[in-house]
Amino acid sequence: LSNSTDLLDTNASSATSINITYTGLPEGIYYINATANDTLGNTNVTAFTTVITLDTTNPGINLTSPSNYANISVSWFTVNVTTTDTNVDTITVLLLNSSGGVIYTNTSSSESYEFNYTGISDAAYYINATVNDSAGNSNQTSIYITVDAYPDATLTPANNTQSSLNNQTFNCSATSSINLSSATFYIWNSSGDVLDTNKTDISGLSNSTNMTEELPAEGAYYWNCLVNDTLGNETWGATTNRTIIVDQTAPEITLESPANAASATTSAYNFTFNVSDSYDISICILIIDGINVANSTSIRTSGANGIYKSGIAVNSHSWSINCTDNAGNVNASASRTLTVTAAASEPSGGGGGSIVSRWVKQIKLNETELNLGQTLKQMKAKYRVTFNVSGMGHSVLILNLTNTTITIEVASTPQKAVLSIGEIKNFDVTGDGVNDISVKLNSIKYPAADLVIQSIAPTTTPTTTPTTTSTTTPTTTPTTTPTTTTEPSKSSIAQWIFALIIIVVIAAVVILIL
Fold first, then answer.
1. Nearest to 154 by CA among 134, 177, 175, 185
2. How far apart are CA 360 and CA 165, in angstroms?
3. CB 359, CB 267: distance < 8 Å
4. Which of 90, 303, 352, 359 is the most exposed, having the fewest neighbouring CB atoms within 10 Å of its CB?
């Protein structure tokens, strides 16, 4: 065993094989050579000297550029990596996005190397450099950089703007870390054909420009703005082209309910109507006697819409619906009349108690519906259900709802209760100590709930004590409908005696013959 200058160790053995272990050797390059001699004086030497590099130290590595947390204002940069190890095997450089995804991988076997990256988008990046030496030792380092080379642009009007005007003004506002050079507007029709382009020279690090365009007809148009800087970097104002809609047609409104000339004591209605429009509706307004009394901004152009209004005074009224679409087009429906007559007093029921002076909807259950258990859907606060038990009127009034509970009042004897979803509660409405109805809360989809109201009053089949000819008093009264025994009539007795005489005569004749 020798190093580059000295013979360090010699070992001999008469065996056919020899194993030698060296410990405590410093790092460096070592040479091993073996010679064999037999008893006849023959000699042989290994054809090649074994060279061993002893290296237990990780290589040093330095990422000299760019600097950590650098903000780079161009779309290219160079990465310089150096290492202090003399036995370098490979240097690997990774460019990663902010989520750790690998974008580029580059390798070299030199002790120093540089990698050039071009066309890099604006974003945050990590650069990782790893060096491995020939002994298998490794080391790494990472830096964080931000590329902000491309111009930024903001556009107005907003995407999907709807307007009733053909003449439209478009704005493109740009900023950049490098001097700006131009902004170019593009407009396409709904078929994708270029309708117009307009390029404007701009300068500085921040600038803005407008383009006014006369759009030829109703319909959808697409537009965008391309911004350039003096280094040739360019950015579209929107990643996808923006849409602007010219809409000059007012919505069509068809009234549904209440019917024209409706008359009732009800002072609260859900005024329903349909709206037809090619685009979106901004608002619909309920107008009663020329006054805007309620509105809705959640309007569908397919299916019925409703605007609820309570507290309508006792009188004859005219009502209509006005709707405005997102382009500002307004239309009014036909006008209908509605008469609210004086409300009748609410019956107090069989047991007396509090009377709720107002409800918005009343539902009447007949005997069959109550016995079978009627499911009542879409029940809301101030909805009232009436029914008869033992020939007297009673009611269930919904006082309040939450997302999980419902509060009700059961009358005639007022009883308030809170039910959770799936819960059943029983009530005595006749005051006899026996529960008569049950109320179950099936579900809630606020602000409405589904209920089941069902009769649970016991049914009694009348019993009649039978009349018999026995003088013994029965100890048990039958629970089934009795059969009443009556005395036989005189004509029935005569018929039986005549039948018995015939039987006796026939029997005597038979005996004589035999």
1. 175
2. 44
3. no
4. 303
What CATH number belongs to 153-244? 2.60.40.2550
Question: Is the peptide bond prior to 447 cis by the omega test (within 30 degrees of 0)?
Answer: yes
Domains 153-244 and 252-340 share a fold: yes
CA–chain centroid gap for 151, Å, is: 36
- The 10s digit of each residue's pLDDT in 106-149 is 999 888 888 899 989 889 999 999 999 888 889 999 999 999 88
- Of 184, 181, 225, 226, nearest in space to 203 by CA: 181
**Closest C-alpha to 247, from 194, 170, 187, 325:** 325
Nearest in space to 56 (alpha carbons), one of 116, 138, 126: 138
> Which structure tokens are listed for 299?
């309007």
Residue 135: name the closest of 21, 20, 5, 28 by CA: 28
Domain ranges of the chain: 1-54, 60-147, 153-244, 252-340, 361-455
pLDDT tens for each residue of 333-345: 999 999 998 644 3
Cβ atoms 228, 182 nearer than 8 A: yes
**Whether domain 60-147 has CATH 2.60.40.1220:** yes
Mean pLDDT of 64-82: 91
Give CATH for domain 252-340: 2.60.40.10
* Portion of the chain with pLDDT greater than 70, in percent: 88
Structure-token pair, residue 298: 């959640």
User: Which tokens hold the place of 340?
Assistant: 């609210």
Q: Are strands 383-389 and 361-364 parallel, antiparallel or unpaired?
A: parallel
The β-bridge partners of 146 are: 71, 124
